[in-house]
Each structure stands twice: as structure tokens, then as C-alpha cells.
Amino acid sequence: MTAQRACALSELEQDTPLRVVLDGKPIAVVRDSNDVVHAIGDTCTHGDISLAEGFVEGETLECWAHGSAFSLVTGKPLNLPAFEPVPVYTVTIDGDDVLIDPSATVAA
């Protein structure tokens, strides 16, 4: 499959996750404080909670429900209670379009 338009770059507020669904996969898109755009699986592996409702700090996204923080770069949980990683997707910026391939994950 190929990359799909997830949103406009101008829609992304810094450190504020945006939930998108591509090919039935919920994805949290984040523009971090360094203006880097990340895309990770939007479902916390601990409690089936949307990570896009969580909090961004640096290169981490914290689940609001139980406090597990996930690396935006690797998808790995950085603390308990989550111990399984979330998928990380490649992001391409084309003008004002944020493109993500929901079928291809980045190897951590």
C-alpha cells in the first residue's frame, strides 16, 4: 500500500495529538515541540484507551488513563503498567499534507 493523507500539517498544534483512522487503523499524529511529526498506534496496549487523548512531553505520549508513556520514535512503553509497544508509522510531509502508510510500520 502507499502513503495516504492523514491531515494537513497546519491542523497539527504543537504537543497536541490528533486521532486519525486510516484503513481502519486508529493512529495518533503528533507534532512535537521540535516540530517533528510522529505517527503511532492510537490504542494504549494496557487499557484500550485512545492515546490521542493523552499528554505529549518531548518525544513521549502519555496515556491519560493509567500514565503509561510511549516513545513517539520507537513506540515502546517507557513505564508500567503498559509493557507492549504500539506501532510506529513513517510520516512524509508533502507541502501541507501529512502522509502516512498505515500498512507499514517502522522497526524499532
UniProtKB/TrEMBL annotation:
<dbReference type="InterPro" id="IPR017941">
    <property type="entry name" value="Rieske_2Fe-2S"/>
</dbReference>
<keyword id="KW-0411">Iron-sulfur</keyword>
<protein>
    <submittedName>
        <fullName>Non-heme iron oxygenase ferredoxin subunit</fullName>
    </submittedName>
</protein>
<keyword id="KW-0408">Iron</keyword>
<dbReference type="GO" id="GO:0016705">
    <property type="term" value="F:oxidoreductase activity, acting on paired donors, with incorporation or reduction of molecular oxygen"/>
</dbReference>
<feature type="domain" description="Rieske">
    <location>
        <begin position="4"/>
        <end position="100"/>
    </location>
</feature>
<dbReference type="GO" id="GO:0046872">
    <property type="term" value="F:metal ion binding"/>
</dbReference>
<dbReference type="GO" id="GO:0051537">
    <property type="term" value="F:2 iron, 2 sulfur cluster binding"/>
</dbReference>
<dbReference type="GO" id="GO:0004497">
    <property type="term" value="F:monooxygenase activity"/>
</dbReference>
<dbReference type="Pfam" id="PF00355">
    <property type="entry name" value="Rieske"/>
</dbReference>
<keyword id="KW-0001">2Fe-2S</keyword>
<dbReference type="InterPro" id="IPR036922">
    <property type="entry name" value="Rieske_2Fe-2S_sf"/>
</dbReference>
<keyword id="KW-0479">Metal-binding</keyword>
